[in-house]
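Every protein is a chain of amino acids, and every chain bends into a shape of its own. The protein below has been through that process, and both of its lines are reproduced in full.
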Amino acid sequence: MGEETLSHTLHFAPSSSSPAGTAASSTDTSAAAAATTTASKIPFRPRKIRKLSSSAASAADDAPGKNPASGNRLAVRVIPRPLSADGEIASALRHLRATDPILARVIDAHDSPTFQCLLTPFHSLARSILYQQLAIKAAASIYARFLALCGGEAGVVPDVVLSLTPHQLRQIGVSERKASYLHDLARKYHGGILSDATIVAMDDKSLFSMLTMVKGIGAWSVHMFMMFCLHRPDVLPVGDLGVRKGVQMLYGLDDVPRPSQMEQLCERWKPYRSVGSWYMWRLVEAKSNPNLASSSAGALNIGSVGVGDAQQQQQQQQQQMIDSFQMLPQSWVKSISPTGTA
C-alpha cells in the first residue's frame, strides 16, 4: 500500500500554482509525508561507490610503466649498449677485473677483444645455417657459391633467398634440410614475423625466443649471433664447450661444468658475461697450444681449439667451439654499429 501511495503522490499531485492545488496543499502534503515514511521501510540493495582522492588518482596515473590510454602496466624492455659502442669494452674489463681476480689474470695475458661484424642480421643468420656441422674449408666453399648465387653479399636478402629453389641450393652443396632452414628464415622475414630492425630492438629474452622458432637455429647459434653480430654484452653460451672448458681451467675444476652449473659459476661476470666468455675461448686456445699468441683483433684461431680434447670427441667439440661470426677474412671485416644494420 505504501508503494502505491508514493507512486500516486509523485505522479499525480496537483501543481501548487493552481487554485485547487492551493486549497488541498495541506492535506496532500500530510499524505505524502506519511507515504514516504512507509515507503522508506522497503528494503533495497545499496550500491557501494568507491571514490579516489585526487592525489591518489594522480599517483595511479603517473605510476611508472603504465599505459595512460589503457591503464595497463607495460613491460619495460632494456636494450643494453652494444660492446662496439665507445667505452663499453673498457667498462667491461674494469668490471671483470674488480669482480673476478682470477679472470683478471687471464685478461692481463691477452689483448682486449674487439666485436666486429660486416653482415646484416639476416645475412648473419643465413650464414650461420650454412656453416653448421661442416668443416671450415667446405663451409667456406659453399658459402662463396651461395653468395654468387644470390648475386653478391648485397643480394643475401629474404626475397632473393626465398626465390632460390631447393634444386639450385643443392647444386651448390646445400643439403635439402639446410635449404628448408634457409627458406623458413626467409619466410619469417617475408611475413613480417622477423626483420633486421625488430631483431636489433628486441631484448635478449625475446630475441632468444623468437630466433629459436626458426628451423635450424638453436640456442648456441642464437648466443653466437647475439654476441658477434649484435654485440650484446651479457650473453653466456652455456652450451658452448669452449666456454665450459675455459671455466673448468679458470677455476681448476675437476670436470667440465654442466650447462646447468654455468649460470652460478659465472654470476659475478654480469652484466658483461659475453666478454668473460670471450676470454674463456682465449684461455682454451692458449692452453691447447702455448706457442700460439692470441690472434690479432680478437679473432679466434680456429685451428688451435680443441687440441687437448679426447681424440674420439675432438671433431665434434672443435666444431662447437668455433666462433662462427669471426670466420670472415680479416680484409672483409670492418666495425659497424648493430643499429646501422637494420
User: Anything to note?
Assistant: The chain has 17 helices and no strands. Residues 1-42, 51-64, 292-342 have pLDDT under 50 and may be disordered. The two ends are 79 Å apart (CA to CA). The CA atoms of residues 245 and 256 lie 6 Å apart.
